[in-house]
Amino acid sequence: MKRASAIYFPPIALDTRGKQPLYTQLYDWFRQAILDGRLRPGQRVPSTRSLAGELGVSRAPVLGAFDQLHAEGYLQTTVGAGTHIAASLPEDRSKLPVAHARTRQGRKRARRLARSTAALIPHQAEPWFQQMGAFRVSLPALDHFPFPIWSGLLARHSRRPKIDTVAYGDPMGYRPLRETIAEYLGTVRAVRCRPEQIMVVAGSQHGLQIAARALLDPGDAVWMEDPGYPGARQVLMSTEVEIVPVPVDEEGLDVKAGVAKRRDARAAYITPSHQYPLGHTMSATRRMLLLDWAARSGAWILEDDYDSEYRFGSRPITSLQGLDADERVIYIGTFSKVLFPALRMGYVVVPEDLIPAFRAVREAIDIFPPGLVQAALAEFIEEGHFARHIRRMKMLYAERREALVEAIAEHIGDGLEIVGSEAGMHLVGLLPAGIKDVAVCEAAAAAGIAAIPLSSCCLRVPRRGGLVLGYAHTNPDQIGEAVQQLAGIIHRTSKHR
């Protein structure tokens, strides 16, 4: 039988001045540790000589305790394998943990969660998030990422690391990467910033969390697009703000509706370049109205620019931050969707007067971002690999989007009205009135299809359900087959509505 290592062994505290003999204390400690599961069957224990040395006692009490534990069947010694916790333990061990488990279960029932945490727990199962098959949202074409180049950059920095990539780092991030991001954003997204304003974070959701903690108090009103990004909703719920749902149309967030609902809102969360999930672009008129509202009311605009690199048929839309003359916009972006999700790397452009506040919040959360990965990413961008990858993926995703649109037209037709197919990595298909999108997506998940119900992105019950379909990770052959399956699922669901 394979033995568990004894390297990680629980600490033993002995009272050398107490009345109880040391061997009895040791025996009691081992027996209780075995009964409550701290020591596992098969786990190796230190030799009597090494344990006596670690405890600073003579070997005699250790030998006495081990003899008693051997006699009662708690310990076994095997030639060549040393001493270990018995695989077959006495019967009383099987009884005690049950009582302990009941006690623990009772304590669990009595425990109280924070209100903000309890609100985050899903009220229903979300099986579509357990699937990695067709139409998984926000998942790029991982098989097209240049991993050999990436691994070479990581290896280069790991072999001879600079001290600022392996020691404690700057809470704002690795300076060369911040310089590279600032140059990229200024050129491609018309963002106005200096490297000092860039904070490197673990993706856009992490950036939003830092911004929310720095700027919002519990009870503050925050506008949120409806439908909108569920991850942003989770962040806002965790800060216990009042989320104000604001409708979205073809021009983006309806600013006038937001003002009518809560003119005094403290902030607005928006995805203006590619509204999530509907895909609309915020019009120039709405952008001006939003900036004017923020300047007049002293509110903040949280601009999430999550996949603006992928726009088909036209240049990327310039950022809202680039139009902001009053520094009311907090610009948030991510590399997770354009490179790969496990990279966990994004950025926040912080107005200069807010840098101390954001820096303090960052230090309180996780101190600083990982240095080696930042160094590799900086070179990945500087050497042109990032730009080449974006160009290749833009062409690939355009082809996959077209394949999806054609497959829907061929196999589903009017049963799925396409919305937002001109940019990004996903589109939305609206279902006929009366068909529940959750039911469709549950059936799809059972078939290995990862469509997300549009209603899960809504704060209010939508007039029509829909499917959020990611196409970046799904090749044309998979698209055709999965759409045919969806057609059958939608047909069967419509018969039972």
Could you explain how this protein is built, in words?
With 497 residues, this protein is of the alpha/beta class. The chain has 3 domains: 111 residues, Arc Repressor Mutant, subunit A (Orthogonal Bundle); 115 residues, Alpha-Beta Complex (Aspartate Aminotransferase, domain 1); 239 residues, 3-Layer(aba) Sandwich (Aspartate Aminotransferase, domain 2), CATH 3.40.640.10. Helices cover 43% and strands 12% of the residues. The protein contains 17 helices and 14 strands. The protein has an 8-stranded mixed sheet, sandwiched between helices. A 4-stranded antiparallel sheet has the order 11-12-14-13, covered by helices on one side. A two-stranded antiparallel ribbon has the order 1-2. The protein is globular and about 85 Å long. The two termini are 57 Å apart.
Secondary-structure blueprint of this entry?
Elements: H1 22-35, H2 48-55, H3 59-71, E1 75-78, E2 82-85, H4 91-110, H5 115-118, H6 147-159, H7 163-166, H8 175-188, E3 198-201, H9 204-215, E4 221-226, H10 230-238, E5 242-249, E6 252-253, H11 255-262, E7 267-270, H12 284-297, E8 300-304, E9 329-334, E10 346-349, H13 355-365, H14 371-382, H15 385-411, E11 417-419, E12 426-430, H16 437-446, E13 452-453, E14 466-470, H17 476-495
Parallel strand pairs: 4-5, 4-7, 7-8, 8-9
Antiparallel strand pairs: 1-2, 3-10, 5-6, 9-10, 11-12, 12-14, 13-14
Helix pairs in contact: 1-3, 2-3, 6-14, 8-14, 9-10, 9-13, 15-17, 16-17
